[in-house]
Amino acid sequence: MTNSITVKPIGVIHSSLKESQGAPIQPVFAKDSEGVIEIYEPYQEALKDLDGFERIWLIYWFHKVVEFRPLVKPYLDTVDRGLFATRAPCRPNPIGMSPVRLLKVEDGKIHIADVDILDGTPVIDIKPYFSKFDKFEVQKCGWYDNVSDQKGIADKRFQK
Amino acid sequence: MTNSITVKPIGVIHSSLKESQGAPIQPVFAKDSEGVIEIYEPYQEALKDLDGFERIWLIYWFHKVVEFRPLVKPYLDTVDRGLFATRAPCRPNPIGMSPVRLLKVEDGKIHIADVDILDGTPVIDIKPYFSKFDKFEVQKCGWYDNVSDQKGIADKRFQK
């Protein structure tokens, strides 16, 4: 088993979402939510050409989450599910991944919309969304195929 | 700036890809490539319900990559681009993200297809692919909109 790995924050997210209670659980449920990603100076040169993309993946660290739970009741279900079959934040490595909408890149800051991420969250990577690589037609989405709740709003169940 | 973060491998990928030279650069270019993810015991319970999904995101650590470069020539382009506008592996935190096809989950192992990941790569998270959350119609994909190369095969340019 490989030893532990060290990750450095490359920036921080500023958003209007101060706690999980009432926050959207995915960008698709966050249509009115905007935010700004502040990228730290050593990484700003790597932002070149990013503004040609419409959507970007933010990879970040859930900094306000309870410890790993192997089974969880997802926000959109009423039954305990295996953690890896959900997007719940209490993961062995609490890494989040959100495909947010890119508004503009300016002075080392990325302005974004469809934001489902809490204010102050450390960002660890940014990747462009490519239709060719990321957009798949799938027929089966497990337990989610029987879910009727389409609100997608969080509560405090996974909050530290 | 938040301090550094520690990540633990939750498993390891076994694949037929021994080096980057000749490997597919994304699952969409890896139609004939199969592999197995061995999940370490403390995390196996969290695999429950995963087999209902058709595709999963593997989040992993590029373990054979050169150091961070702010500007890179992507495999599919001939011009230097900002690293964050590419999926090149030499990132500040070399985290990879691949939407592979799920074949079956059995005895703590996940059998997968469309594998673009080198043998021995440490896995740090697994998330199900949800059409509702991950599939977006985007009109603009930056520099990639003018790319004609559709082979998607890697060479040694980012290999340590």
Topology diagram in text:
Two copies of one chain form a homodimer.
Chain A: E1 5-7, E2 11-15, E3 34-39, E4 55-61, E5 71-72, E6 81-82, E7 95-106, E8 109-113, E9 122-128, H1 131-134
Antiparallel strand pairs in A: 2-3, 2-9, 3-8, 4-7, 4-9, 5-6, 7-8
Kindly describe this structure.
- The structure is a homodimer of 160-residue chains.
- Chain A has 160 residues and is mainly β.
- The first copy, chain A, has one domain: Beta Barrel (Elongation Factor Tu (Ef-tu), domain 3).
- In chain A, strands 2-3-8-7-4-9 form a six-stranded antiparallel barrel.
- The longest helix of chain A has 4 residues.
- Chain A is globular.
- The two termini of chain A are 29 Å apart.
- In chain A, 48% of the residues are buried.
- Chains A and B meet through strand 1, strand 4, strand 6, strand 7 and strand 9 of A and strand 1, strand 4, strand 6, strand 7 and strand 9 of B.
- Strand 1 of chain A pairs antiparallel with strand 1 of chain B.
Identify the notable features of this structure and list them briefly.
homodimer, 160 residues, mainly beta, Elongation Factor Tu (Ef-tu), domain 3, two-stranded antiparallel ribbon, 9 strands
Oligomer category:
homodimer
Look at the helices and sheets of chain A and give the structural class.
mainly beta
Q: SSE string of chain A, helix = H, strand = E?
A: EEEEEEEEEH
What is CATH's topology name of chain A?
Elongation Factor Tu (Ef-tu), domain 3
What proportion of the residues of chain A is helical, as a percent range?
under 10%
- Please report the number of helical segments of chain A: 1
